[in-house]
Amino acid sequence: MVMQATRKTGVAPQANDTRALEAAAATRMLVAERILDYSGHVSIRIPGQDAFVIQIGSNSRAEVEPESMLVVDFDGKVLEGRGQPPSEIPIHIEILKARPDVQAVLHSHMELAIAFTMMEGVTLQPMRARASRWKSGIPTDPDPSHIKTKEQGRALAKTLGPHHAVLMRAHGLTLVAESAQALFIDAVHFKENATAQMQALQAGTKPLPLTDGEIEQIEKMEMRDWHIQKLWNYYVRKGLKEGVLPDEWGAPLIPSADMLTRDRTY
Question: Where are the domains of the chain?
């Protein structure tokens, strides 16, 4: 059950303003990339607390701002901000509780993801290089309804297990990552990968997923931290240019030159 605090002073300005800004920016950019629409949500864990930042459930994802972010605890109680969190808050609570390694969670109703839960004998597989992220598997949770109870949230977290993505039967998907930036980039690559497999299926051919050996070779060359900053820089600047993000968000969101400098070539 979602509870709401009587004290509504806005997101804590020092501890959580960066997380609120990153969550708002990621949400807007995910809308621009057709990964989020009228529904879905991003959460970011607050280190050292059983709490996280997430948007007000009723706010447009295309217009969300840092000021429309809430701080919510693991009981669903709003600690900071005005409004109610999304109705599917148990997704975020139970995954963050079950996975201390996870710092950010995305729930989306991506149409491509849903399609892979509605085809008999077809499993979403790593097809493109960046999909090595999901080499351990992409399980499907059997519950097609909205996840609104603790029990449903725990069941979804159990299905996710140690993986980085879980499909939700006839519903959508949930992704987890080590940061808001990584979560956004993973979502972009998840869509690319699902598109690649769907294109192979639509061509009437048998999809040829990456082999274990190919994944091993890919990961030898992987520079995940640098790759995330490179793509985050691209999408933030794209969002600023196209008016998806306000100009004043640019300075705190654009990575520094040091963050965009590789410490190795492979």
Answer: 3-210
